[in-house]
């Protein structure tokens, strides 16, 4: 490449590496000098996302956590180092103005030495990507690096930030998650949303480099818009939250067929018109103080549940649905079985037809075991069961 020729040589190298310890110390110092400005947006951000992914893994072992975090730190160190070397090789003249402390303009390394390290780090980065099972994201990042740094992709704000920064952020976020847990559609959607935001706000960082960008002919958004850039970005940042807040579509109403359902214990000629409150958000369930009954919306006084159903002769409800908590209370099966036979309903509930909705307890997922799951599966297959009732605010 042109940038390896002697025409582009910089100041003499200040370090003379004579021993192994000198060499290692020099390389560490060089890595720091090339990358320290961008740790928060790459190594730290990527590792935090890997930790987030590990939190979704059931019973993640200590060994898995340590390996994943170490793997993430190493991967993103190479991710950043290879990219920054390429970017600074391409911006020596600009850095002499904007960032003279960088390794190339300061003479810490020659242009040829930086080029050799870029080749070495890129090959090592690709090898780590293959070993980690994220080769496609890794090769995409290398392609973005080459296009941005050596093919003019950084010369215009659209390709530099909206295209390359957004795509690069997707690479970072997807790899970071994959190093800790399997990637799902939800994580991909979040990565896409965050990356689009990154591509927009990344234009702000070009404010500090306007003088150098003008000299090198780079048309960043601050250069193109001039003094108006600050107002444009301020308007975008102010409007952006309202876009996400107001674009939620109202759910379509449920089909009419859901409101005309035959109870499993009823004959086809006895249709029960129900509101079908399958998922409820209330704190107390039917076996205790509340029963959900057609024509009865007030709180029913605390008393045995069958007495509450009868109320008084001739004034009882036509039908209802109970929330039966499994596996905490075995009474759910008594409620459910009594819905299937006319004689049971007449004896126990005054002939009231009702549905059975299962309440999910305990609310905390970590309390579930095989016995709990077996009870839940049994309840869900009961002929009188129509849905699941859970407390949204307490569920996890």
UniProtKB/TrEMBL annotation:
Give Gene Ontology CC terms: membrane
Q: Report if keyword Cytoplasm is assigned.
A: no
Where would you find the membrane-spanning parts of this chain?
Answer: 64-83, 118-150
- Bilayer topology annotation: Multi-pass membrane protein
Q: Does the keyword Amino-acid biosynthesis apply?
A: no
Question: Which keywords fit this entry according to its UniProt record?
Answer: Membrane, Transferase, Transmembrane, Transmembrane helix
* Annotated localization: Membrane
Identify a single GO molecular function assigned to this protein. Answer: transferase activity, transferring alkyl or aryl (other than methyl) groups
Looking up PANTHER family in the UniProt record yields: CHLOROPHYLL SYNTHASE, CHLOROPHYLL SYNTHASE, CHLOROPLASTIC
This protein's name: UbiA prenyltransferase
Organism of this sequence: Mycena sanguinolenta
Query: What taxonomic ancestry is recorded?
Result: Eukaryota, Fungi, Dikarya, Basidiomycota, Agaricomycotina
